[in-house]
UniProtKB/TrEMBL annotation:
Coiled coil: none
Organism, scientific name: Igneacidithiobacillus copahuensis
Any Gene Ontology CC annotation: DNA-directed RNA polymerase complex
GO term, biological process aspect, one: DNA-templated transcription initiation
Full protein name: RNA polymerase sigma-54 factor
Upper taxonomic lineage: Bacteria, Pseudomonadati, Pseudomonadota, Acidithiobacillia, Acidithiobacillales
Domain RNA polymerase sigma factor 54 DNA-binding: 314-472
Gene Ontology terms, MF aspect: DNA binding; DNA-binding transcription activator activity; nucleotidyltransferase activity; sigma factor activity
Listed transmembrane segments: none
Highest taxon of source: Bacteria
Amino acid sequence: MKQGLELKLGQHLAMTPQLQQAIRLLQLSTLDLQQEVQMMLDSNPLLDEEEGVELAASDGPSPAPEERQLDLAAETSLPEELPVDSQWEDVFDMGSSAAGSATANDEDLPDFEARNSREQSLQDYLRWQANLTFFESDDRNLAELIIDAIDDTGYLGAELSELVETSGRPLAELEAILRQIQEFDPPGVAARSLAECLSLQLQQIEEEDDALLLARRIVDEQLELLAKHDYVRLAQALDAREEKLRAAVALIAALNPKPGSEIGAGASEYVIPDVIVRWVGKRLRVELNAEAMPRLRINRHYAGLSGGKDAAHRYIQDQLNEARWFIKSLQSRQETILKVATAIVEQQKDFFMHGPEAMRPMVLRDIAEAVEMHESTISRVTNQKFMTTPRGLFEFKYFFSSHVGTDQGGAASATAIRAVILKMVQAEDSQHPLSDAEIAKVLAEQGIQIARRTVAKYREAANIPPASQRRRL
């Protein structure tokens, strides 16, 4: 047996506090972002808000995102791009995560149009991910059963043995579906205990270092000592030095013990669109909403005091670095939102030209490939982000739906099918309204094969009453 040494070169991305901040800002709604900006302004004297800044009219070509962004002080060592699109970034706090996608037939996507007018619950969010993950009806039914048993804090509130009795399916099948749901966003969801919740979040970090390995051991073996803050015994039990223990504890402290609490925590009173879509001639222009963009700058007076080496000057330097990182994170957020929104509009141009009946089937993977980002990043960007368009105000997620196959071998969007059903009902004889079976038959004649129960689901999602209630004398 030959023995030897192998030298590998590679780049490793550390989960720094700055990267955590960039990821967290990316997932915030505009209203939540405004609160975050205000808190930063209140806490950091190096950060100022620009007053009365007006952007130029958009008659000409849209300026690049960096031209419409924030005033960065010179001589900064920040990277040009924040790597918010990593596959393991989902560890910290709320957000939209790996929601899987494919192009298999799926008639049971939720009605995303309703998301524009009501608060999204944790269960809604999990069902959306499930419908883009499970494509066999049996698996989807089991996923629905498990999701229904998840409480508002994100924990599984029922024993799997109870779900076995309810479903009549083997325990192994339920465990397999549960493991997949535990990979959904928010990280740590569907756990059965605090230890499992924290462990699930730590498992999603792929870059292993000493702090991560030690954090996993603490969660798996010594969570009780951590809860008691008995760091002396904890260090002894793990045979760990104080410096490494401190890093591991800090990593655990950054996790969310109630991962579901951030979803549906409170309905917004109003919506500020992140993006504006408009026709310019025969082309659609996509641009960031200036009203939603925080405009910040470095306080140059205080920044000029950061050159010394005493404690006061070090404090100013730390605050300066924090302010620069925050501005850079905001810029990265805006650039990513604009890039994703532009890709969505390009994919769904027929919708803007002809309406919902022309909506194309589209899943997260389509946009992820178009902008060369990970699906978890796309899910994160599309959550609680809105665009105002010539056809109304829509959440980004409205444009996503999987396809229903047609007899010609093509595909129709579930959203488009709902629009066709609505048009049929609007044109029906009010004395002899169409039943769900009759609607299914007409759709079949058009090459779209869906079951009567699916017609009923789409009809209810569009707030269309059944035929018996639509009949008029």
